Amino acid sequence: MNSNTPVSKPTIQRAAASLTYVELTFVPKRIEYWIRFGRIAEERILDRRRRIVSFASGTVFAFVRWASNEHGTIISRIDILRAISPGEAFSTVPFVRPGGDILLRITGWAKVERVLRAIDAVEAIGVDPIEVAPDHWRHVHNRLTAGVEPRPYTLQRHNAWLRRRRIEP
What we know:
Elements: H1 9-17, E1 19-27, E2 31-37, E3 42-45, E4 50-56, E5 60-69, E6 72-83, E7 91-93, E8 96-107, H2 109-124, H3 134-145, H4 155-167
Antiparallel strand pairs: 1-2, 1-4, 1-8, 2-5, 3-4, 5-6, 6-8, 7-8
């Protein structure tokens, strides 16, 4: 297909159906919904405070939500999700359409901060967080939920994950 060949409407609809959409909002000192990591496929600006980003099927991303009112913080949450394929089972998450495969879901600023530090630690060893073994994010979720420090992600574990991923169907 060359660049002059028109793309059919069903083709465009199938491509759009395979994306996961996340609505981001920024109202200074009130609402901050942002992506900590992830490979954004598309971005659409709605207005000066809101935009929608999308992720291709299988992409892992971290979605952070923070909001406050006159009394202080009312929500602090981080979700690490895998964008789903059409027809795949998923969990619903506010501001994420249609939803995603939840790898990690943490609330409360103290725990959210620990997840952000875990992400920083992955980056410090030279690994992109989107390439991390999904089991690691589940491990971080389970350990923090239990009030225990998660084990660090290592290059050895990452290399094992990459080898395992190559042989999986």
